[in-house]
Amino acid sequence: MYNIGIVDDDKAFIAYMKRLLQSGAWEGERVIFYEYSSGEELVAHMQEQAVYDLLILDIQLTGMDGHEAARKFRKLHPDTVLVFCSGVFLPTVEAFETTPFRYLLKEYSEERMRGGTGGGFKQNEGTQGDSISEREKG
What we know:
The chain is built from six helices and five strands; from the N terminus they run βαβαβαβαβαα. It is α/β, with parallel strands linked by helices.
């Protein structure tokens, strides 16, 4: 079972990412999605979920931006695979302070998005601290 959080103020993009992940590398896997429309909402609920395997986080959010949300998230979930996804912003030094696995632009093709989220993550499970495979064994 995989727990995936998606933070974006665009509900259509959340639905797109869920469809993309469910039809790609995650197809046939049991996946629970946690949807958040703001950084504040993620921070308010992140203690309720003990483990996130993957967090897809928009950078440009109203109120608390993705950078700030990622810093707060990392304090509780240092081993979660973090993927930044933005429509306009390019990577900055600030973005890399929270050690993202990938930085994707929303304009990327479906194939490139799959490789940067589901496919790329699952190929590298053993490289992200307390990996999924280790948790499933215990």
